[in-house]
Design a protein that fits this description.
The structure is a homodimer. The radius of gyration of chain A is 33 Å and the shape is elongated. In chain A, strand 25, helix 25 and strand 26 (653-657) form a beta-alpha-beta unit. In chain A, the strands form 6 sheets. An 8-stranded mixed sheet of chain A has the order 13-23-22-15-16-17-18-14. An 8-stranded parallel beta barrel of chain A has the order 25-26-27-28-29-30-31-32, surrounded by 7 helices. A 6-stranded antiparallel sheet of chain A has the order 2-1-3-6-4-5, sandwiched between helices. In chain A, 50% of the residues lie in helices and 15% in strands.
Chain lengths: 1016, 1016
């Protein structure tokens, strides 16, 4: 056995090494590509890996050997890696890096120091449970440096140096412990503070607050415990506000706090050094407290990210009328307008601005109160915006007339502001287009396409308790309407609508199915109790650009009783609900919505030239299109879809699902009749009718796309999806018998030859016989696991006449459009291929039809390709590429098979999986890179081994999700295909991917140089 | 884009090349392993590939350049590749190779020549549709050589040389065109033949027969056409037999045949050369005629295999009483006894032996009739057996006292004969053990384990029209019994059985489910209308060693009416059916069965020492065990299973499915109660009871296996499988309430505290409430695609208390057994792992329980591993191997996910897929090597990259299927685990795999030498 294993490993190991799971992340793949490009040659992956190792080693070395705290103050920073200053967020955290930067830039910042965020800290604090040995000695050295800068002294009874202690990771994480202020106060220093500030009340109030904060944040005592004592004190003193308490009251409070804490076995140490030590430890540990874990999960921040600790000299905005504190933005974060924005309070501390006890003033009014400080603030913040090349969100304090900047960071902004700021900064020449593109979160591009709830109304509704809960935000946008529980009811309710009068309905279902399409079309929004982000309702919702909240598991939907019960509240048919598909929130009653201007342009209700909003939006998208390597195509089945795709300048149609075209009320009866037919000859007349309809569908796709590629997928879903299941649904179908064609069935099968037949005419017996037939066929077609059943190419192979009909429809449409002088570029895509022979079978049918039609109409070019959505398709992509001229990853299905996660059922364990950290994100939403992603990579390599110019795209829902788009870029795909309204998001993500990769390339170049020099 | 693609290909292409789909076959993998072993080093795969190319090139060169026909006769053969003689079946076909061999061995064979089977022939005849240019010139040269040997002349009017023309591929294919005799006869040569044979009737009868054969086989005229004329002739002459026709009758017949053929536009050429050309072409084309294609498909012969053509001088056994013809075996092919076996007819042609007009005599009586020829025949056939080192199946003709051997080949034999012959030949010193092992088809080892229908009775039944049809042969063996349609009915029917009186029942169901287990246990056999080879009925049938025919689609089963309709015959409850699980046949009424002696020993009904049959069987298995690299373990859940496994010397238990242990009537109520519980605390009492049961199950496994590894899998199926679905089933469960524990539920939920409750006692209202509860939970747990739902490790993660309970049961059992001084080797296997983190979660639970119990009981070792059955598990095997100490491929599921083929649904398209040649075999039965197999290879490489000594096995049903076992060997697995009764098959396949691989290695050594010398 030993010998054999040995014999197998030489080649095997090499492959295995190349396929190591940890290589299949966007970052590693990009790194490999970049390394390859800058000339590392064949060993690129391993060179990249060795660089990675070097980096980790350096990081580890630094944390163990190098001083683990960096002072900032007096215009200098101790943090100077590689000799040159660089505000390194990875090491110092966002907040820390900016404090160091501001200090170096000569901006007045209270001095302090940063304990960096490193693997070592993580190890010591998270895993080992204690601070690194010797850390406090270093900390005390830094404290001395602060003391030297301020002239105060930590723990001094006369001029006590107080500190704020704050967390600050690479990414902002509000879920983490944030801040302890006034650290260093104790029974003695409080007296010194009173003296120094010449304000006894201020000192005792600070002490009281410090005890509250410390006991809560560091000692873990619940807030209520001390708050209650405070409330009692106010009641006993007959006052309403804290500010009305006297010095004595506050002194009493401090004593009572201490007594209470003692009772609980907790204690705020008097020793200021011990206070600091505990606070530092608490900040470090808070990186993985429960809230932080939830926050990281919700915002897809890696679990490994830990916080740095910033210890900074306190300054006080509450030292009198020449003191103040405030927050602001260098531009308006709601609109993006270039205006000074923010608020402040005189003679106050930061807390007070938030607490809402006093009403803060607009920042502009600071000019009136403290003109000098105001001018200084304007000057400083303008510099900050230039320095950081982005809009800044800052905090400041004015202590006795002197301005201190406490924090600055890139300002979060609304989607609208993001677009405006990006365009403005480029036009001002302040930043490059690349920087502008990196400033907008891809997802923000979609926010601008959906109606939103009026933010003010929403706040009111939440206060009023009208928020019923939160489901999965499946398709963004806000919708309001009366609820209906069946597609019919929605159609009925909206039947008499005119162009000007629309009845707004929310379709509420346990889950939707293809029968509900008409109702979904007519509804304003969709709410389902079950299903995940790729459930039918979610897919169709996104497809239609219709707000949808799915998996709203708090609700019990009783479709029979036509009620939805949420907790103890029951809503019935006709009641009003408001749903927010962007957030997943569901509200009782109506909340006013604001329409999307861009959507109005895209849908032709507003002219582009009348909408500057649209113009700026398209300007950004134009930059993105220019900057991206990946093309962005559209998943579009209908004329309406392609028009939207065209408005967003889609570079092709990557997926037109022909089966969606069968679900119309005028079409489905033919489909059903076809399915009920038993021989190809019986099927033919129905196929002919479907052919005519499909042809006209395809004509409109080709006409709009004008020579851009249009990829049409042959039939995919199992036939039973087309058949009605219940008696009522069957009867409904049968009653459309006279307008359509089931009658032909009847003629042959039941000997009836009348042209139009109703139930009465037909007679009960025959009616029931026909109903039975449908049910029997439905039962025959029933499957235990339809997702792995008789669908996709399997249908085409067992029903070759359907493939032939579809090929004919496509080519006839192409000829019709080409005859009008419009160029056409049809691509035929065979779904669910796992075996090359499947594709061969279908290709033969298609090429036969093509050859036959070319004889009649002359030449027309087309391409034939396949979806890669069964794992076997990916594993044997080299064989499949012998026949396929293009691949398109159907990641909706590919991930289901690869993970064995049924999209309809996985909801039950995906949530606990994410909670337990087993998976980082829902794989139905983001591509599972190490698993499904590795298989995709393999398919790309194998496919291009056979056919180096193989065009490869993705048309699963992931094609419109930013992290997945970046991964597709890193895989070297040619395009992503997304729902029309996801095109802007995909395009932005594609542009950012390429920009990020080039930045990695720059980094690598530098590292390589360092390595080369080191090895000399 | 171009640049990027280029940048990606360097490493990517290398990997892709290594992963080319065509490398993932047993033969290529074995070749690679062998090449590696003999020192080709790292480039082994490519060296092997280059050898392959060289071989193909050589073959192609030979077909174009070298004489494409080889003479044999006069004690010599023209076929001498590599200088030395070698009967090469690949080139000459089986029949041809043996004719050449016999000739060279000095045995009297009529001279002739062989046109070899080559790619060239295939190309010219199959694709191009015509014979290679110049072939007929070569053929005529060979004809001249035959003429020189016999002294006759082809087409001569005096001493015409006649030929037989026969097909003969590498594998015997009865589906192909077989033989044309008497070729060379025409209006003139018939006269010569009459003269030479001094028998006019013989000559004209030969001519008549030749026209019939030629027109049918070469010209494609239906047999009936000329047969009809023959019949009419007999009627008009008032005779019954052909032999009664006169010479004139025969002459008339020839004329009438010709006239009829002319009428049909067909004609037997008079030109003998043209006859020969057409016959050769027909044989070549027959390699891919419809029958051959079906045959190849049914017997898994590669499509590419084509036939050689053997043209041989005719000899005649019908030249008088000193002539004869016969067939025989060197040993008895039914029993294996060393006795001369066969039959002959004096003065007859081969045809007559088959036609049954005259009754042939036993071969031994030839000694009386022609003692000299008999002695010669015995001598020759004894030499043949020695020469070919195997029992021979031969044909001979005695022409005027002279013996000619017409054919010899390895004799097909029954399973019993195969074992006996193998043992005898080894004991006689005639062959090596290795050769003996290669003589037995692995599947034959299983035939000896099952009762079979008495062959005579079966023939009678078929003649009487009692054969009702054929389903899928899911679990071998014959069974007879009255039919019952529910498990209850079976249990009821067999309730009063005693040790001596057994009621035989066949359980007939549409399909079975876990509720049917008790009925399946009590039944003799299982017949289902739906389902495939891995359906529940098939799996459990094989597991229990119980005959099962599944997917018997000709039947309509009405479980309500308790009838099964097959065509227009209806069988009702109590009627007798006989089913043959080895063939899939279903018969009306009773057919006597013969029991398997080996099975009686294995199941303890007969002592091993009293059964020579068993001893010989085990001797062979012992050889196989010795010869194999792969170990063979057992899938065994119960004490009964492991005892059988032990009797077959299983080297371990590779899969003990704990959930099967939950399905007993005394257990399932606890399971249901557990599932109905809502909190871990509520679950605990039920878990405790299940724990005790599981512990005792495990104790019996450990006790039997005595220190061999026992791999126990934690719970796998979705919980809804445990819940009853219909009211009746729920009521049945509820009525067992007083004997078990659902009452505890009632106590808490419904406020009832009575210990034992019946429906009456409980009252209707509460009964219904409880029933509703079960149904509601069932509905909650319902899944759209249960195969990809909440099962396997996902259950363990969301229900950690189940994993903990199972771990505790395993360890407690291990301690209990170890305390008795019996060594134990428990292995815990977590199913359905796709993410390393899943395994980590479960491993943590298991290790916690283990640590806790070790504190109490002292140390006990165990291993923790996982099944690889989700594609993602295979793709990320490097990560998973960080935690897993062993892998076991669950190929039942792995292939489902990899192909997207649901085992319950794929039946609908697998048959048309095989028919259309899209897949070569049912992937549920044989591992799909290029797809699923590639993924397995990847998992092996990745897993052993992390953990070089990783133990890897397979426990899917494929572990007992010969081609899959060979593939597992080629992958380098450590063991296959099979159902107990499949162990002998697996062991034989494992031994053969290693022998085949070493033979490949020998071949490679030779080829390498040739290559090395050529490159000098």
């Amino acid at each position: 056995m030993v010998y054999r294993v040995k014999a197998r490993t030489v080649e095997g190991r090499r492959v295995a090494g190349l396929l190591s799971t940890d290589k299949f992340t966007t970052a590693r793949l990009m790194e490999a590509r970049a390394a390859e490009r800058i000339g590392f040659g064949a060993g690129a992956l391993s060179v990249a890996a060795s660089l990675q190792v070097q980096r980790l080693e350096t990081a580890a070395k630094r944390s163990f050997d190098v001083l683990p705290a960096y002072f900032f103050g007096d215009g200098r920073s101790e943090f100077r890696p590689d000799g040159g200053f660089k505000p390194d967020k990875d090491t110092l955290g966002g907040k820390g890096a900016n404090l160091h930067s501001m200090t170096e830039a000569g901006i007045s910042v209270p001095p302090g120091f940063t304990i960096p965020t490193t693997e070592t800290n993580r190890y010591f604090v998270q895993d080992n449970g204690q601070l690194p040995d010797g850390l406090m000695d270093v900390v005390m050295q830094k404290v001395e440096m602060v003391e030297a800068a301020t002239g105060n002294k930590f723990g001094d009874e006369d001029r006590p140096q107080l500190f704020s202690v704050r967390s600050g990771a690479k990414f902002s994480m509000p879920g983490m412990m944030d801040t302890i202020l006034n650290l260093g106060l104790n029974n003695k220093t409080v007296l010194g503070l009173a003296k120094a500030a010449n304000n006894e009340r201020f000192a005792w109030d600070s002490y009281r607050r410090f005890i509250q904060m410390f006991s809560n944040v560091v000692l873990g005592v619940k807030k209520d415990v001390l708050e209650e004592i405070l409330s009692e004190k106010k009641v006993s003193r007959g006052v309403k506000n804290d500010t009305e308490l006297t010095v004595d009251d506050l002194k009493e409070l401090v004593a009572e706090y201490k007594a209470k804490l003692k009772e609980l076995g907790a204690e705020v140490p008097q020793d200021e050094r011990r206070q600091l030590e505990l606070a530092i430890e608490a900040v470090m540990k808070s990186s993985n407290n429960e809230r932080a874990i939830v926050y990281k999960r919700d915002f897809n921040i890696p679990k490994e990210i830990v916080s740095a600790v910033n210890v900074q000299a306190m300054v006080f905005g509450n030292m009198g009328e020449d003191s103040a504190t405030g927050v602001g933005f260098t531009r308006n974060p709601e609109t993006g307008a270039n205006e000074f924005y923010g608020e402040f309070l005189s003679n106050a501390q930061g807390e007070d601005v938030v607490a809402g006890v006093r009403t803060p003033l607009k920042l502009k009014r600071l000019a009136e109160v403290m003109p000098e400080a105001y001018a200084q603030l304007r000057e400083v913040t303008t510099r900050l915006e230039k320095f950081f090349r982005n809009v800044q969100d800052f905090e400041f304090t004015i202590e006795r007339g002197k301005l201190y900047m406490l924090q600055t960071r890139d300002g979060k902004r609304s989607a609208q502001a993001a677009v405006n700021i990006a365009v403005d900064l480029v036009e001002e020449g302040a930043i490059t287009i690349e920087e502008a593109l990196m400033m907008i979160e891809p997802e923000q591009m979609s926010h601008l396409l959906h109606p939103v709830f009026d933010p003010e109304e929403k706040k009111v509704a939440i206060k009023a308790g009208r928020l019923l809960g939160q489901g999965i935000n499946a398709s963004p946008g806000a919708a309001v309407g009366r609820i209906e529980f069946t597609a019919e009811a929605v159609v009925l309710a909206t039947a008499n609508d005119t162009k000007d009068k629309k009845t707004k309905v929310i379709l509420v279902r346990k889950e939707t199915n293809p029968d509900d399409i008409s109702g979904m079309k007519a509804a304003q929004g969709i709410l389902t109790a079950t299903g995940g982000a790729t459930s039918h309702a979610a897919l169709v919702g996104r497809q239609m650009g219709k707000p949808a909240v799915v998996g709203f598991s708090a609700a019990e939907v009783d479709e029979k009783a036509r009620t939805i019960r949420i907790g103890d509240r029951v809503f019935k048919e006709g009641d009003i609900l408001s749903i927010d598909g962007t957030t997943g929130e569901v509200f009782a009653g109506e909340i006013m919505t604001l329409p999307s201007e861009i959507k109005r342009v895209v849908e032709g209700q507003l002219k582009a030239e009348d909408s500057p909003v649209y113009q700026r939006y398209m300007k950004v998208l134009g930059w993105a299109k220019e900057a991206a390597e990946l093309e962005v195509w559209a998943n579009a089945d209908t004329a309406k879809d392609v028009k939207i795709a065209d408005a967003f300048e889609a570079q092709g149609v990557g997926l037109a699902r022909t089966e969606h075209m069968f679900f119309g009320d005028d079409r489905i009866p033919y489909m059903v009749a076809m399915i009920l037919s038993e021989t190809p000859a019986e099927k033919q007349p129905f196929l002919d009718k479907i052919l005519a309809m499909q042809r006209s569908d395809f004509i409109s796709l080709f006409e709009v796309m004008k020579g851009r590629p249009v990829t049409i997928r042959t039939i995919d879903p199992p036939l039973h999806e087309f058949l009605p299941k219940t008696d009522a649904d069957i009867d409904k179908l049968l009653s459309s018998i006279h307008s359509v064609a089931l009658v032909e069935q009847l003629e042959r099968k039941l000997g009836i030859s009348k042209e139009g037949v109703t139930r009465d005419e037909l007679g009960e017996e025959l009616w029931l016989a026909l109903r039975e037939k449908v049910k029997r066929r439905s039962a025959e077609l029933h499957e235990a696991n339809p997702m792995m059943g008789h669908r996709g190419t399997r249908l085409g192979i067992t029903n070759p006449e359907i493939t032939a009909m579809q090929a004919r429809a496509i080519f006839e449409a192409a000829f019709a459009v080409a005859r009008k002088g419009i160029p056409v570029k049809p691509k035929i895509m065979i779904p669910l291929v796992g075996f090359a022979a499947e594709l061969k079978d279908q290709a033969t049918i298609v090429r036969e039809v093509h050859a036959e039609l070319e004889k009649e109409h002359g030449p027309i070019a087309f391409q034939l390709g396949t979806m890669i959505e069964v794992p076997r398709g990916g594993l044997t992509a080299d064989e499949i590429a012998l026949l396929a001229e293009f691949f398109s990853f159907g990641t909706n299905d590919l991930h289901q098979y690869t993970l064995g996660f049924s999209r309809d059922d996985a909801g039950k364990f995906i949530a606990p999986y994410i909670d337990k950290g087993i998976i980082p994100a829902d794989p139905t939403q983001k591509i599972d890179q190490p698993g499904t992603g590795k298989l995709m990579w393999l398919a790309v390599q194998l496919g291009r081994e056979t056919r180096p110019d193989l065009e490869i795209g993705i048309c699963g829902e992931h094609g419109g999700e930013p992290t997945s788009v970046e991964f597709c870029h890193a895989l070297g795909l040619n395009y992503v295909s997304a729902s029309p309204y996801r095109i802007p998001v995909a395009r932005m993500a594609a542009a950012q991917a390429w920009i990020k990769e080039r930045r990695i390339e720059d980094e690598l170049r530098k590292s390589a140089k360092v390595l080369q020099e080191a090895s000399k």
